[in-house]
Every structure is written in C-alpha cells, then in structure tokens.
Design brief:
Largest sheet: 9 strands, mixed
Radius of gyration: 28 Å
Number of domains: 2
Strand content: 5-15%
Strand order of the largest sheet: 3-2-4-5-1-6-7-8-9
Oligomer: single chain
Number of helices: 18
CATH architecture of the largest domain: 3-Layer(aba) Sandwich
CATH class of the largest domain: Alpha Beta
Structural class: alpha/beta
Number of strands: 9
Distance between the termini: 60 Å
CATH superfamily of the largest domain: P-loop containing nucleotide triphosphate hydrolases
CATH topology of the largest domain: Rossmann fold
Helix content: 40-55%
C-alpha cells in the first residue's frame, strides 16, 4: 500500500534535497552496497527519485556497480524520454546534477541515509493519520478494525525506521571472531562460565552458555508443568544479575504474577508460602512479614510486567517500545523479553483461517523482534494434546503445537516435564502397583526435567531441576538431589 500517493508534499514538509543527497552519493561512488539493507525504493517520496533508485538496484544486481552511466542505461528509451519531458531537461543532465551535489560520496551516506528514512517515516505517519481521520468520519466504520488496521500500518512504518537505522550488518570473519573472543573474555573475568545473560540456574547456564541476545528460545510444556514458574524465576534471577527484563503475559494478570514472584523470592529465605495461600490470605503474620520484605527486594529489580490478552505481534512491538521508554528512564535497557505464551498471540488477517500459517507468522515475528531490538526472546509455548496419549509423556519436537516453523525459527527449544504431575493423577491397579506409584511420586515430587531438544550452539541434553510448584520456585537440582 502506498500511503503517500495522494498526499500534498508541499504541505507535508518534504525536503527534496535529502533524497537528492542520497542518490548523488550513491551515483558518484557507484557503491550501492553502501546502502543495501538500509535504503529501499519506497523511502523516496518523489516518484522520479524512487525510479532512479530502482535502476540503481537493477544496475548493481546485473553489473555489481551503480555508476551514473550504467544507471542511465537501465532506463528504457521511452521512459527516459518521458522523464526528460517531465523534468524539462534531459534525464542524463539531471543525473549529472545529482552527482555534482553528492560531494561527500559514500562517506556522506552515514548522515544522509538516516535523514532519508526519518523523512519517509514522518510523511508516512502523516499520510496514515489522514487516512485514519477520513475513515473515522464514516459512521459505519468498525472502530476495532480501524484500530487494528492503523496499528499494522504504523508498525510497518516503525519496522522500516528500525531497518533504516540498523547500521552495519556485514562483518569480516576476523571482526566477528574479535567480538566472540570479547564475549568469552568477559565470561572468564566474571567467572560465570557463560557468554550470555544468566538463567539463574547453574546447570542450564553450563549447558547453554546463558540466554543470548538476538536469539529466540522456546520453552514448551503441557499445562501444569511449571512453565510460568520457570519463566518468572528466570526473569527475577536475570534482573537480579543486572539485565533489564520485560515480561508480557497474555494469560495471567500482573497481580497474580507478582504474587508468584513474591513466593519465589521468599522461598530463598526459607519462607515457604504456597501461592494459593497468598491469594486466599491463609498466611501467618510472621510469613506475611517475609512476603513484605520480598516485595521490598523485588522493588529494586529492573523487571517490568505487561498484562493484556489478545495482543498481536504488532501490539507486542508497541508494548516493548513503551516498556523500553520506562526502562530508559530508570537507566536500563530491555535485554530479555519473555512472552507467556505464543499461541495466545493474535494473528493478523493475512492468513485468517490457516492456523499453521498464522503460528508461523507469529513465530517469525517474535524472532524478528529479538533481532531488531538486540534482545533475547524467551517465548513460552503450549504443546499439543498428543503428549497425553503416549506412555512416555516427555515432550518431543513434534509436539510443538500447530507449526513446525516454531522449531525452525527458534535457536533453542526446551521442554519441561514433571513425572509427579502424571503420577498424582494415576492410580495403581492393585495394592502393589499403588505402593510403587506412591513411592515414585514421593521421589519425583520436586523434580523438574528441563529437556533441551534443540540448540544451535550446543548439545541436546536433559537437565534436572528442583521445583516447588506450590511456591512457584524453580532451583538448581543440587538443592534436593
């Protein structure tokens, strides 16, 4: 959709010289590679400039060069004649004037490209605002659909703005190796053994190297396995280590999450208050004092919770940006974003009715958010009911619900499994079988398996953890095993 096709550029604050500077710099240097991935034809508001940039891209693709001579030859004779008549001067002369204005060559692009993209975004937002105002004047319009449409359009503009300011995307192998070694040295100096953000769980840190920026981790489980407890515990531990953490809940409200967080923190102080007892007020006075102290401890953490059901990927981006604004004011950056859980994210209308394609779009959208914002994405996922029909109910990659693209998009996929959950619901066929079930239940009551089923940068393995489901506490297995 061309949002600016009908807008009056004279009233939109369009500065044509900004576009001319970019085109002149590329044409004078012949280096389209200097703007590849940052500038698109749509960023040029003036139709002729948009067409010139399309020809620059064509020349670069065919001849690996975008000099003025090559670009001029890309124009078909009739089109070149039409533009010359419109300009009232030869097109070749106009291209030459662009080059003469691009005095800084490729070096000037680091200044002119951000100005170009920002101008495009500003004018596009204005055009979208006019469209919204015109549509809102219609008494028959559905305001919910108007809001959804506006959100998608504004998110497209925001994505273009982020892409245009991305900066360097190509690195030599020695540059990449230098960055990697810097991360290793940092881990060595901190003696944590990890190159990412801590899970707060030693054995998982050892198995994964931590939670890494620009990557998506999917933690899948059936209901009752403790995925929210794990995610919230990781959020607390990562925040305590200094990382800024955002937690977006599409299922549970913030008050309930805060109560779970309080019981988790208090657990470390040997104050074992079941989450349900806290909700119902069945708590001793001395334990309540511990919970109040846990609240004071939690106040210091760079951890922000957003609760809202039915969010789309576009909505998540908006929520993240607002969360980042709050974090900035507190002197932090959102380093980890936890989403609970991905199947509750609303799909766009693009693949309406095709659930597999909808989930694929959601999955790729979450991964893109991680890369665009230089953060680690931890997405919780509900697993299919097929798990329940097997004798061994430990999850597998094929249990990822409704889409194999989740597995493809994720850098790491882990599953949670609690044998005690299933044993508590079972019943032995006879006295001996019931005794055996009871013994197994007692042994596994606090055991949580963290099954790493996929990991781009490491081995697949199972890590045993300690869990107290009632207190929403997940800890290293050494606590009890």
């Amino acid at each position: 959709m061309n949002r600016i096709a009908d807008i009056d550029l004279s009233k939109a604050g369009h500065v044509v010289e900004i576009e001319q500077l970019v085109l002149g710099s590329v044409l004078s240097s012949g280096q389209h590679s200097a703007v590849r991935g940052m500038v698109k034809a749509e960023h040029f508001i003036e139709p002729l400039h948009r067409r010139i940039f399309e020809m620059i891209e064509l020349a670069a693709e065919r001849y690996n060069s975008a000099t003025i001579g090559l670009v001029f030859k890309m124009f078909p004779p009739e089109e070149e004649k039409g533009w010359s008549e419109w300009l009232k001067e030869p097109l070749s002369g106009y291209l030459s004037r662009l080059v003469s204005n691009g005095v800084f060559g490729a070096g000037g692009l680091k200044y002119s490209v951000p100005n170009l993209v920002q101008q495009w975004a500003r004018i596009s937002v204005g055009a979208e605002a006019e469209r919204i105002a015109a549509a809102a004047a219609d008494p028959a319009v559905d305001p919910r659909e108007l809001i959804r449409s506006a959100t998608r359009s504004l998110d497209d503009i925001a994505a273009g703005l982020r892409g245009g300011s991305r900066g360097k995307t190509r690195f030599s192998i020695d540059e990449a190796a230098d960055t990697a070694l810097d991360q290793v040295q940092e881990a060595m100096s901190h003696k944590t053994g990890i190159t990412g953000i801590t899970w707060g769980l030693a054995d998982i840190n050892l198995a994964t190297g931590g939670i890494h920026r620009n990557e998506m981790i999917v933690v899948g489980a059936r209901p009752g396995m403790g995925k929210t407890a794990l995610a919230l515990g990781v959020a607390i531990k990562a925040a305590r280590a200094g990382a800024g953490v955002g937690f977006i809940s599409l299922e549970m409200n913030a008050n309930k999450l805060a109560m779970r967080a309080l019981t988790d923190i208090a657990f470390d102080w040997n104050i074992k208050v079941p989450y349900q007892d806290l909700i119902t007020g069945r708590i001793a006075e001395k334990d309540f004092e511990g919970i109040v102290a846990a609240k004071q401890d939690m106040n210091k953490l760079p951890l922000w919770i957003e609760e809202q059901p039915g969010l789309s990927v576009s909505d998540l981006r908006v929520k993240l940006e607002r969360m980042q604004d709050v974090a900035d004011r507190a002197g932090h950056k959102i380093d980890v974003l936890i989403v609970d859980y991905m199947q509750l994210i609303a799909a766009s209308s693009r693949y309406k009715g095709n659930r597999v394609s909808e989930v694929s779009e959601i999955s790729s959208g979450l991964r893109q958010i991680a890369r665009e914002n230089d953060l680690a994405m931890v997405a919780l996922s509900q697993l299919s009911r097929g798990v329940e029909s097997r004798e061994d109910k430990r999850p597998m990659l094929s249990d990822l619900r409704e889409s194999g693209s989740i597995e493809q998009d994720a850098d790491t996929v882990a599953f949670l499994y609690r044998e005690a959950y299933y044993l508590s619901k079972a019943k032995g066929n006879n006295e001996e079988a019931e005794f055996e079930r009871s013994e197994k239940l007692a042994e596994s009551q606090n055991r949580l398996e963290f099954i790493i089923a996929k990991q781009r940068n490491g081995a697949v393995k199972t890590v045993d953890l300690f869990v107290d489901i009632a207190c929403s506490a997940v800890r290293n297995a050494a606590r009890s095993f």
